[in-house]
Amino acid sequence: MRTVRNALLAAVTAAVLPMSGLGTQVVTIAAEVKNGLVELAQKASHGRSGDFREPGVLIRSAPDTGSAARGVGNPGDDASIRQATRGESVRCPDGSANSEWFDITNRRTRVSGFVSGCFL
After folding, report:
1. 3-class secondary structure for 54-74?
2. pLDDT digits (tens, 9 = 90+) for 24-35
3. Same domain, 54 and 109
């Protein structure tokens, strides 16, 4: 009985919604909501995660090259970025200088610390 009722409701809905134009509006609104949520999710994740640019990137206890290394990061490990901060200026592999460091957690190893912006 329930199956018959559901089938009848589906048939009536399928017949009425397209005639009223409401069906098109509902689909359009649903698509816009979905697109908005996808955009928000992308914005929320932007700048909050990254990956290591080369193997053996040192994760340090403070934003300078003289601080103790807590571990290493490698491409594919991924990093959760808590915040960006200023630190010691580091010469990047491309020859530029960068004083931006990131307070991160390596997602694979769970080691937390600071990584130069050159390598993330």
Report:
1. CCCEEEECCCCCCCCEEEEEC
2. 665 566 556 555
3. yes
Nearest to 63 by CA among 90, 36, 23: 90
Q: Which residues of 31-60 are buried (b: 16+ CB within 10 A; e: fewer)?
A: eeeeeeeeeeeeeeeeeeebebbeeebbbb
Q: Range of 55's domain? A: 49-119
CA distance 13 to 114: 57
Query: Is 73 within 8 Å of 80 (Cβ atoms)?
Result: no
22 with 70, same domain: the answer is no
Residue 106 clears pLDDT 70, i.e. is over it: yes
